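Entry:
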Amino acid sequence: MSLSILLDYPEDISLSALKLIKLKKSIIKRLTLTGEATIAELCKETDFSIPTVTKIISELIEEGIVSETGKVDTPGGRRPSQYGINPNACYYLGVEVHRNSISIGIQDFNNQFVKLAEHIAYTLDNTKESLQLLCSIINRFVDDSKVPRSKIIGACINLSGRINSRKGFSYSYFFFEEKPLSEIIESQINIKTFLENDTRAMTYGEYNCGVVKSEKDVIFVNIGQGVGIGIICNGKLYYGKSGYSGEFGHSPVFDNEIICHCGKKGCLETEISGIALERKFKTALNEGSISILSGKKAIEEINVDDILQAITRNEDTLGIEILEEIGGKLGRYLSLLINIFNPELVVLGGTLAETGMYLRLPVKTSIHKYSLSLVSLDMELKMSSLGSKAGVIGACYILRDKLFYSA
């Protein structure tokens, strides 16, 4: 039974063969989650007999997925062998698409990077040309990695907006025909492809190997150009009925007549986002305020990255003041979610969160001001520890789960 059969088996497969596939997946899940194990330990955890598990382990070794890693020390008698995952058996490809760049990474079977590239120049436009360029960049990255394409068993592409990850549709970008975007990209890169919402992928990256430790109920806030949230409920990503959960930024909370890019007025992200930071900063300069950026660039050419660098590198007073205002508003509206969900942990991520305490302090103060004290005191607020890598890491972990952890 090959690895490809494990991942893509026919619908008319026999019950006995399906049973063995599920056993193989459960053994792979155990070894990737907690490391090495003996035959006896695997039998105990899977409720299968020693001959059956021994046969499966032998097949996995023959397929190059598992290898013997040594012997277990025992007080006496025969020392049992330990088995672990072969990290080079297969690879995952994660792609994070931003508005002005792309990050791509390839991880081995143990979710360790073998190649990672961030901030690859790219402009996300809702055009066929932009989609074609995206596929070309992915193909070039894979070719340059020297990882055999046949060993890359899946690609997860993260996009902002409304993503139906189950069916492979994106309704915010590249919705040109009644065909799943995942299938279109897959035909261009020749790797099994899945789609995911960018914030949800960042959430899952942070949950698996970031700032999240033992917490099982988590809200991740991605505040970049826009603002969205990812939700972990009882240790699992929450998608909602159609997969569109987390559109926090499009809550109509402001009576400001500012048109959001979604087409509606007064959305939360018209006042709380990188777009809002840039607009407010430029307005202040036009009204006579002074910044470290004054005179260095024409006002209309200043962008979010310029402002964030002025804050973090030069402690720009104007930028800090506007960011504090945004942080205060963010904390106020996060208090609604905190009162509703009562999470163990709230994580701030995204480009604006890279300013650290300049965002965290006003958010924390506002949360304590507006949320129920019994709820907020039972919750921690932390900054993302993965930063710009969160989305690519999350994409690879989502692939792992979809391919090997599902029933």
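Residues 225 and 274 are 4 Å apart (CA to CA).
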